[in-house]
From TrEMBL:
Protein name: Resolvase/invertase-type recombinase catalytic domain-containing protein
GO MF annotations, alphabetized: DNA binding; DNA strand exchange activity
Pfam families per record: HTH_7 (PF02796), Resolvase (PF00239)
PROSITE patterns associated with the record: RECOMBINASES_3
Top-level taxon in the UniProt lineage: Bacteria
Resolvase/invertase-type recombinase catalytic domain ranges (all copies): 1-133
Organism: Planococcus lenghuensis
Amino acid sequence: MNYGYIRPLADDKMNRHQRKELESVGGIQIVEEEHAGAKRRVALEGLLEAVQEGDRLYVFSLYVLADSTRHLLDIVRLLNEREAELHVLSSGIDTRPFSAYSFLTVLEELAQFQTEAISEKTKMGLLEAQKKGNNAGRPKKSPDAINEALEMYHTKRYSLEEIKEKTGISKSTLYRNLES
């Protein structure tokens, strides 16, 4: 079976351009998403459940199919597992068996690259913030306040609430420091 998938985009809200491109291929059952949002793509979910060995899925562009590299990778893996093909009209991507492995490999590498790039940018941002004196996370509790809280606890005359009220040291911080 040949399927085409379309969904509203900012510059093609009525799906006219996508529909025209898919109809030019011919012999395609078009599945249309009712809304543009990335959440709850009911039509796409139903289509992916229906895809079987030998089926072909046509889309105008990769962005019509997925909003992220990771989502695209999941869809391509599913199609690959079911021995179905993906055809992207705007870029000429075709995952027929002779080219599926290489496309899937490139996509996996791209997803890994994207993950690593985000992680590296985050680390660089944190290091830069530290250099400027902006430390991430909660400020450290004063050692004097912790020592006072520990002394109060060991006297057994104060409740945990009283210790917290007087020193600002929470129960979990107090217990963590008791263990060390």
